[in-house]
Design brief:
Immunoglobulin-like; four-stranded antiparallel β-sheet
Length: 146
Amino acid sequence: MARRRDIDRLTELEELFADLWQVPRFAAGTRLVHRPQIDVVRTEEPPELTIVVEIPGADADSIRVVLDGRRLVVAGERPRPRAADQVWYRSEIEYGPFEREVSLAVDVDANGAAATYERGLLRVVLPVAERAPAPARLTIAIRRVG
């Protein structure tokens, strides 16, 4: 049991360093990629990981979900709404390209992976593998709900 806690701590440290090295949104002259918020939950019955990514306003067709071994990458773009008569006074919502990489603490069964997008939340469900699978890279299709 101590080993799982150590892996969880390592994952948390990796995410902390990723957050610290993220370029500030107000940096001039760069095309910024923002990192949406996530939840990662493991259940034992059935044994699976569920990753929920918060990306309201993104079109499901613009989102790519790629599973590469123990690494899940979610990327896409949330376009800024435009109108000819708009004058921006404040802009706090992050628009443009986004990407989030999640290191998985356990091996997963890529063939059983499923993703849904509903009301701004992308939900990726990954069954936990009984044994380590052969290395594979898989793009997961997203099913729209609602």
